[in-house]
Amino acid sequence: MTLSAFGPVPSRRLGFSIGINHIPPKHCPYACVYCQVGATNHMQIKPGSFYPVDAVYQVVQQAVQLAQKQHQSIDFLTFVPDGEPTLDQNLGAEIDALRDLGYPIAVITNGALINHPDVRQALGKADWVSLKIDSVIEPIWRSINRPHRALRLDEIMSGMLTFASEFGGEFVTETMLISGLNDDLASINRLADFLYALQP
Question: Is 101 helix (H, G, I), strand (E, B) or coil?
Fold first, then answer.
């Protein structure tokens, strides 16, 4: 799928959301065993520029105008692409540009690159950010998320803690529990301790 905006679609957490797909499939630092988008065919950890900021703005503006014309509610503009949104080095500039449309902005990220200050800075521009944390135990994390070999869980967790301490918007996390992998009591307790430290 190419650059697109879709919706508004109903969301339990975000009301009615215009989704923004600004990453070509499937550029991601992870190859999660449960990914609904499919196999990761572009394992990547270095951010790049995929589409011009103006192009992203235009497709979102068109989706917003169409929804308004049809008298549909919009509660959020949400970066939820077919890859990892923080791989877009223009994410912060795109958020800045979309402010002109007058809606809160959300980003749903796996958090794999959150140890990088420029990624935290870009995410910090959003109103609502979701980080994925499936496990805080290295072997289990590697079994579930199947990360790029250069990634380290301790660095990601440190980046998450830093982000949580700095971010002024609404901060949430999400976890996929998988039978036999991360649903035992020890794994859940370790995860709960980390979530308590994050205070999402």
Answer: helix
